[in-house]
Amino acid sequence: MRLDYLSNHPGRVPALAAWHHAEWGHLYSGWTLEVATAELQDHATRRTLPTTLVLLDGDTLLGSVSVVHEDAAELKDRGSPWLASLYVDEDARGQGLGQALVEAAVELAALNGVERLFLFTPEHAAFYEQLGWEAVESTQLNGTAVTVMAIVPRSRAQ
Ligand SMILES: CC(C)(COP(=O)(O)OP(=O)(O)OC[C@H]1O[C@@H](n2cnc3c(N)ncnc32)[C@H](O)[C@@H]1OP(=O)(O)O)[C@@H](O)C(=O)NCCC(=O)NCCS
Q1: Could you tell me the strand order of the sheet in which 60-68 lies?
Q2: Cα–Cα 20 to 30 A to 92, which of 55, 57, 62, 147?
Q3: Distance 109 CA to ligand 1 centre (A)
Q4: Contact 97/88 with Cβ under 8 angstroms?
Q5: Counted domains in the chain
Q6: Which domain holds residue 102?
Q7: For the segment 100-135, what is each residue's pLDDT rounded down to a tens digit?
Q8: What highest taxon heads this organism's lineage (predicted)?
């Protein structure tokens, strides 16, 4: 199993975009499959922010995570950047892959000099708290209750 930049696997963009859009399309007005695809195609051009990491087992795509400058426009005044689009294939959940992706995103943020990394989550605040994230606000996003969370990224190499 390996974590890698999406830039090394641009052919995975359509599959990832389909996962992401099915999961989160309802949260963002105007965020069509085409927009989701274009964002990931852009991420696949770089290893600095905004970018996306993928988790692969051989040829099988298992998940992804992104670190972006802005996730939801309504929350942009809270800070930046944001861990976004954490996703693990349904059949591969509950094996620590989500945790590995979150840790890789935090490491990526540390390597890019990020002082504070944010995220928002409708239902997984307890999952992120286990991984060292702190809840900083409860709010609403397009009628959905979300928790805004933050972490000070520290590289495991430091
Ligand atoms: C959320 C998601 C990424 C978790 O992926 P996963 O690979 O199942 O997570 P892990 O196996 O790494 O979980 C790590 C630990 O957190 C626990 N955990 C997982 N979800 C949790 C939750 N909602 N609340 C509390 N603990 C949770 C697991 O039981 C595991 O505990 P353990 O280490 O004691 O066994 C996955 O369910 C997913 O892709 N969901 C759909 C997209 C989504 O909701 N993304 C998050 C958006 S904020």
Answers
A1: 2-5, 51-57, 60-68, 82-88, 117-121, 144-151, 134-141
A2: 147
A3: 20
A4: yes
A5: 1
A6: 2-113
A7: 999 999 999 999 999 999 999 999 999 999 999 999
A8: Bacteria
